[in-house]
Amino acid sequence: MSKNAYDVVVRPIITEKSAGAAASGQYTFLVDSRANKVEIAEAVSYIFNVDVVKVRVMNRAPKFGRWGRKRVKRQSAQKKAVVTLPPGQRIEAFEGV
To answer: Can you give the CATH number for the domain in which 52 is found?
Structure first.
């Protein structure tokens, strides 16, 4: 792996929707915008010591607002990854949220 695993996975996304998906073995993470699916799978399996079955990636566009006549960026673009684990494996950080 060319990048550090902790540089690829920025943080877990813990919301009501992602907590519901975690019950079925799908976990959501905010990842580096330059990371691909293979690097994300290797990083998650290294950090949490689990096997990864599938990785789905979403690019979120930046949000813009207005400051007078100017158009300004309120939130930068982000990349999210939904990682699917095999049945029987869990990530403890998501449990009890």
So the answer is: 3.30.70.330
